[in-house]
Structures are given as structure tokens and as C-alpha cells.
Amino acid sequence: MYFEQPGEKFDTALLHLHLTIPSNYPVSSPEVELMTPHLHSHVIGKRVCFSLAPAFRWHFEDENSPENIFWNTSWTLSEYLKLLWQFLSKDEDAEETVVSYDLEDSEVRAAVKKTHVFICPDPRCSHRGAAHPIPTIKVDPLVEHKAREALDRRARSAFGEEG
Prior knowledge:
Layout: E1 17-20, E2 31-34, E3 43-44, E4 47-48, H1 57-62, H2 77-89, H3 92-95, H4 105-116, H5 141-158
Antiparallel strand pairs: 1-2, 3-4
């Protein structure tokens, strides 16, 4: 999931997600595990507090949220991912001080840069940040170039080479 939004807080963030489609889909919603750290007020570890996520439905029910915000069989996977992208690309609660989330812009930008060189620890996955995102997506060429350089430096360092 790539955010190309010049001027926005999460511009160029490249989030790597693992999506699990349950065997009874579309009766049950997909589950998302956010592999890259993302400084968003609704990200708790690797989970996203999102009304379509089954793990957090209780929260929205406690808030007396309308039924139409929850997963139902009419939702498609494409719609789900678009809504998740919209939700994670901005942090409206943090911007509106609905939640206490005091982060400096420099902290957010540093975290965004870390997403560029994130290597997925799952041995079944070959995602290697902006240098080699899986699935292949178009990222900013400068971001991709810097990610390749960082991965090259990391590889040389691992083998004790200078550079």
C-alpha cells in the first residue's frame, strides 16, 4: 500500500500488509496484519482498529456505530482495500486531537523513510521495501533509488565489506 500524497504527513509511506482471506469469505471479512510500523493513531502493533476489522467490531458496537460501517457480504475485496488505504493514508483523529498522539513531523518522516527499506521477515514473502515491493507497484523513483542504495549498504555491511 503506497501513499503518494505530496504535502501530506504519510507521503511516500510504503506499507506492507499480509491479508488473510477466511475460508468463509465473503461471509467473514478479510483480516489484515500490518507488517511495517505505521505511526497512525489507530494502529495497535500489527493490527488496525478499523470498523471492517472483525477484531475491533466490539469497539464500534460500544460506540453505537451504525450497522452499515461493519463488514457485510456486499463488500468486495477491492472496496475493502480502498477504504483501508483511505483510512491509513490520513490520521484524522490525531489531526483533530480526538486522540492524544503527540509526534513531531520529523518522527513521522523518519518512520515513513523506514518503510522504504522494510524487509518482510516472513520467509514466504520476498518484499524488500521500495527497492523490490511485492506485489510490484510504482513508487517515487527517488524513493526507490534511495531504498536500493540502503539495501546495498546493508548487504555490504552484512558481509563485512566497506562502502
